[in-house]
Amino acid sequence: MSTNKQANRLIHVKSPYLLQHAYNPVDWYPWCEEAFEKAKSEDKPIFLSIGYSTCHWCHVMERESFEDQEVADYLNKYFVSVKVDREERPDVDHIYMEVCQALTGHGGWPLTIIMTPEQKPFFAGTYYPKTDRMGIQGLMSILKAVTNAWQNNRAALTESGNRILNFINKEQQSSENDITRDIFDIANSSYRNYFDSAYGGFGNAPKFPTPHNLIFLLRYWKITNEQRALDMVEKTLDSMYKGGIYDHIGFGFCRYSTDRKWLVPHFEKMLYDNALLAITYLEAFQATKNSKYGSVAGDILSYILRDMTSPDGGFYCAEDADSEGVEGKFYLWTPDEVRKILCDKKGEDFCLFYNITREGNFEGKSIPNLINNDCTLEDIKNYDSSREKLFKEREKRIHPFKDDKILTSWNGLMITAMAMAGRILHDERYTLAATRAADFILNNLIREDGRLLSGYRDGKADILAFSEDYAFFVMGLIELYETTYESNYLKKALTLTDDLLKLFWDNKNGGLFIYGTDSEQLITRPKTIYDGAIPSGNSVAALNMMKLSRLTGRYELEEKANDIFRAFSGSISAQPFSHAYSLVALMYGKEKGQEVVIVSDSFEKAAPFIEIINEEFRPFTVSILYNPKDTVLKEISPFLRSYGKINGKPTAYVCENHSCKAPVNDINEFRSLLYN
Questions:
Q1: The predicted structure's pLDDT at residue 172
Q2: Nearest to 475 by CA among 649, 242, 195, 279
Q3: What is the pLDDT of residue 384?
Q4: 424 close to 294: Cβ distance less than 8 angstroms
Q5: Which residues have CB under 8 Å from 387's CB, separation 6+?
Q6: Long-range contacts, 159-163 (Cβ 8 Å, 24+)
Q7: How far is CA 296 from CA 243, 258, 293, 452, in A?
Q8: Please, are residues 274 and 325 in contact by the beta-carbon 8 Å criterion?
Q9: β partners of residue 625
Q10: How confident is the model at residue 133 (pLDDT cuts 50, 70, 90)?
């Protein structure tokens, strides 16, 4: 990007993605009323382009078209051009991605939409080259065809836009049925059918981690003891870690693999992927006691603490796939480079171990991987000193671009991972990181009136939070409470959940809308429970509400969760495979759960009981540490007032299925209660 060119309006925004386009010759507008008014007054269609800062094909389309003067001149003359960061405006992105999928059968980014000044879309697609190429229609051809139709056949375009909008609104309609337990067996069968027994994961290339599929299967194994479900989890976790999708030099996972073997990734690293994968490896560690999974989780979080954490404690969004304009360049090696850094013998050994060859496996160079290496964790640890030397040398390279936005939703996912790691791996670094990030959001992303905000950058936060911001952050606060037992986190989770229901609940059909009643009202008000790359706000909120119900005694929250399931029962039942986190939430409500209350004057005295809770994989258990002097906890969980210590000692209460067992203060008796 050459800064000696004249800047367009995007120079005044905070989004790193929009700023990347601030010197395009295209006369870009951010999403704003000014753009729509201009389109109306000049009688022009709107060219809407949606992407994000670490999107490889967004960069390609920018270089080929948006930096091209001919394209810019045409857009500036016949269109009003609007650029949107999908991570800042998931509401806008969701609506027009649904349009693209309805019209073309697929979606992705960059997302290209052409619509009326009233924001009604009549054309949708993804990446387009500038000119027609290899059977792909070029952007210039599309723009000229649209211009001709706009000038000569406007009625057809308008009618098309109305039909699309009617179809999208019809898709939003809810159903009102209860979902039976057999859906878990149906989903498990689907996963078995799609499972790749050779390389793990589901389906063929490209392969996405989609960790919530594995999170569901771990719970299915827990309730059924079906070994095949656990085998699918372990095979996938092992294969992903061994593949090139995992950064064996600097840690962390890339967004997806372009091939079946997990070898060649799309090299961008996203905060949400690494959060969800860390959660999955942590749960697998608890379930199997395989230390390798705990080690991988720790390494993922070490990468986040090192490279993706702001000085104030918030977590950054993503790192790009490209550096110096070349995809993956930062991550690739040749044997000569490795030998030069490590010396010949150690270099040869490292290359052999990590499959770094003269022929290479990507663009003539090598992505380190362990795909054909039947190694143990101890074998890998033996190469730590060599890996560290290579990492230090790699740090001298030009780094991929880092999107330093701090999103409330994705931070909620990483707070969840860090809080879980703190208690499961017994490492205070992770607990501290979760605490700092949660406090950062509480201090910087909540207005004086209590309204949660969606994102932060350069000291500014002004976009109202969406339902997934509330849901994911509340999830993080609940996990942070169960790690620290600081009651203020539980209180804030409850307050934000009440706000979520007030601002986002569909009073007619049930479920949560994507944007609130106080937000900008778009052409439609969507709601979704589809669990795609990340779980949906509805599925996460449903699980949160059930947990909060059991932690506080507010059982109307569990009924709200059931209302969500009923509202989306048609979608979930039709495609359980695509609603993994909804199934996780459903399972929590339908299976035998445990509520544990430990009465103690301090965390330290209660620690032996807490250790027993955390030593096993207990996805259907919630716990409370109750100090009778804690006035906050008494306020939000008033039922605790009747709980007391026996003989002045820390005492544990275990309740199941609305029935409580006799309290105990003997460690062995407590362990026995949890296992029976």
A1: 59
A2: 279
A3: 97
A4: yes
A5: 248, 249, 350
A6: 160/122, 161/115, 161/116, 161/120, 161/121, 161/122, 162/120
A7: 13, 22, 5, 33
A8: no
A9: 598
A10: confident
Please name the residues in contact with 459: beta carbons below 8 A apart, sequence gap of 6 or more.
none
- What are the start and end residues of each CATH 3.40.30.10 domain in the chain? 9-171
Mean pLDDT of the 137-166 span: 91
C-alpha torsion 652→656→658→659, nearest 10: -60
What is the assigned CATH class of domain 594-675? alpha beta
Distance between the two ends of the chain, CA-based, in angstroms?
64
Determine how β-strand 80-85 pairs with β-strand 46-51.
parallel
Any idea what DSSP says for residue 207? B
Domain with CATH 1.50.10.10 in the chain: 182-321+403-590
Measured distance CA(141)–CA(442) in Å, rounded: 49
Does the pLDDT value for residue 596 go beyond 90? yes
Tell me the two tokens of residue 256: 């997806």
Residue pLDDT, tens place only, 618-658: 999 999 999 999 999 999 999 999 999 999 999 999 998 77
Task: Give me the sign of the Cα torsion angle 555, 557, 558, 563.
Answer: positive
Residue 268 parent element (H or E):
none
Q: Which two tokens stand for residue 298?
A: 């720790």
Q: Residue 526 has what pLDDT?
A: 93
Separation of alpha carbons 383 and 348, rounded Å: 12
CATH code assigned to 182-321+403-590: 1.50.10.10
Closest to 623 (Cα-Cα) out of 419, 481, 423: 481
Q: Which fold has domain 9-171?
A: Glutaredoxin (3.40.30)
Q: What is the pLDDT of residue 103?
A: 86
Mapped to the 3 state alphabet, what secondary structure does 604-646 carry? Answer: HHHHHHHHHHHCCCCCCEEEEEECCCCHHHHHHCHHHHHCCCE
Mean pLDDT of the region 138-150 = 95
Tokens of 445: 């992303």
